[in-house]
Write a structure and sequence with these properties.
mainly beta, 4 domains, 2 helices, 7% helix
């Protein structure tokens, strides 16, 4: 039985493997290297491995200095090639030899650079940026460095090659890019002098795994002392559920709600969650998503300011001696300050975290109207009472 016939047989009678037939023919090119005596078991395992790999990783951008590149670049200085002085593409690689020269090159000790523009990676996770390098005979003063920018913020310069004593080294440099990144770019810089040493660079590329959902929007709005959180997705793949997370400081989040996803969808899906008990002050909300296989991804954070629903009360409101201040528990130390109508402070006391009631002796207050001011961080609330 031929290899193609074997594959047809198993994909027809074992539906588990049928979805892989939708992949491009190139995904199965490794099958052609198998001999006709290869066992059916190995054949199917390889097919599953290649198809699975093809479904996970995607090439987002590449520059290999050949045909069909999707990532442009700008050389500085401009490219030149005099035969012995080279800063240009040679044999589909970026070739450097005697960069410091008077034929369009740099001054001795100056850097030449390849600047690659921003690439949008917001629809991907597990992102890597990589490139190949091959340095031959680098002496003192011949160096290679690069600088990566994530969302236009520099991650600092990295000295990749520190030339000395005719150093020769080659390899692939791989930089991991954090999930949730919007854009990424890189600047490669080379400092080189002399015709007896050289360097080649190739395969600048960004790869990643497509996010299981394409998040079109995520918004939070205050609505009648509640926070309405709404979001839409453009596409979903194997999306099991969403978690809504809330934080007081934007760093430590806790789950406050779970919403079922649409599974697989190529049409716009709309979602809403209501936080009925927002915290006073700034509330930070984060949306996360979980696949059917348990893998999760988090998205951007939105913030909503909530001043409170006016829960501080005084009993009785017409006081002879003792009165009770009732309030919502505070997460940190607060303070109550009482003023008369001319603005004079007549009383002040600390409110300990977690306190819900505070008894105040007003027997020494003069008759008249007063204002009690309760403050905790950015939260301030006032209530009035009368001293009889």
């Amino acid at each position: 039985m031929s290899l193609l016939l074997k594959f047809y047989f198993f994909s027809t009678y074992f539906p588990l493997f049928s979805p892989f037939l939708d992949l491009p023919l190139s995904s199965f090119k490794l099958f052609l290297t198998f001999s006709k005596t290869t066992t059916m078991k190995k054949f199917l395992l390889l097919g599953l491995f290649v198809a699975f790999s093809a479904s996970i990783f995607a090439q987002i951008a590449i520059q290999d200095f050949g045909a069909g590149n999707t990532w442009s670049y700008t050389p500085n200085p401009a490219a030149f090639n005099t035969g012995s002085d080279i800063w240009d593409i040679v044999s589909e690689e970026w070739y450097v030899q005697d960069l410091a020269n008077s034929n369009g090159g740099t001054a001795v000790g100056d850097w030449g650079s390849l600047t690659f523009p921003n690439v949008d990676v917001s629809a991907y996770q597990s992102i890597t940026l990589s490139f190949d390098y091959d340095v031959n005979g680098f002496d003192n003063g011949d160096d290679v460095k690069y600088e990566v920018f994530i969302d236009d913020a520099s991650q600092g310069e990295v000295l990749l090659v520190d030339g000395n004593s005719n150093l020769s080294v080659n390899g692939t440099e791989t930089i991991n890019i954090p999930n949730g990144t919007g854009t990424v770019r890189i600047i490669l810089s080379v400092k080189q002098n002399g015709g007896s040493d050289d360097a080649q660079f190739d395969n600048f590329q960004i790869q990643g795994s497509p996010l299981p959902i394409t998040l079109a929007s995520f918004n939070g709005d205050l609505d009648n002392n509640q926070v309405s959180l709404t979001w839409t997705t453009a596409t979903e793949t194997n999306n099991d559920y969403f978690n809504l997370e809330r934080s007081k400081d934007g760093q430590r989040f806790e789950v406050i709600g779970k919403i079922a996803g649409a599974g697989n969808s190529t049409t716009t899906q709309k979602y809403e969650f209501i936080d009925h008990t927002p915290m006073r002050g700034t509330n930070y909300y984060r949306l996360s998503q979980t696949d059917y296989d348990g893998k999760s991804a988090s998205f951007d954070v939105v913030s909503v300011d909530f001043k409170g629903a006016g829960t501080t009360t005084i009993r009785p409101t017409q006081v002879k001696d003792l009165m009770t201040l009732s309030l919502e528990p505070m997460e940190s130390v607060g303070r109550v300050t009482i003023y008369n109508l001319v603005g004079q402070k007549v009383y002040s006391e600390v409110i300990e975290p977690g306190s819900t009631n505070l008894e105040i002796d007003a027997s020494t207050f003069a008759q008249g109207q007063y204002v009690a001011r309760v403050a905790n961080g950015n939260f301030v609330e006032t209530v009035r009472f009368i001293k009889l």
